[in-house]
Please model this.
Amino acid sequence: MPRKADRGAEEGEPKSNLDYKLLGGVAVVILYLAFGYGAQILCNVIGVAYPAYISMKAIETRTKEDDTRWLTYWVTFGVLSVVEHFSFFLVQIIPFYFLLKCIFHIWCMAPIENNGSTIMFTKVIQPYFKKYEKVADDFISETTDKLKQTAGEVISKVKST
Model:
């Protein structure tokens, strides 16, 4: 007669208490993201903690592919964070906003070829970047020159007093 754990595996049930605990933990996180106070913080932790850890590991490898993958994630994450900041009203009008945002983050970090960050980057972010790259470069150059000039003037005044 098969052991209890083996019978569960044959019937398509979870194999151990660990499976139940994992499913319970996922359910709690989903419910908290849907209804909990501070769901924004939990969503940001999920969207930052694992990608930051894996990005650190990617930096230590010699391959370019993992670096590109995680840089693409961070560019997408950054752009969406800025957009979200200026469209904060979405939080109030979209039901389960942070749950949906968290699902989107998970899709963006999914270990598949065309994950969310790859699609967002190639279809949305990169075309806008290419369109406005020259304008941005000119703005950054002019601003840097003005900052250097101002810093030089401030340092000269401080030295002369």
Residues 19 and 25 are 10 Å apart (CA to CA).
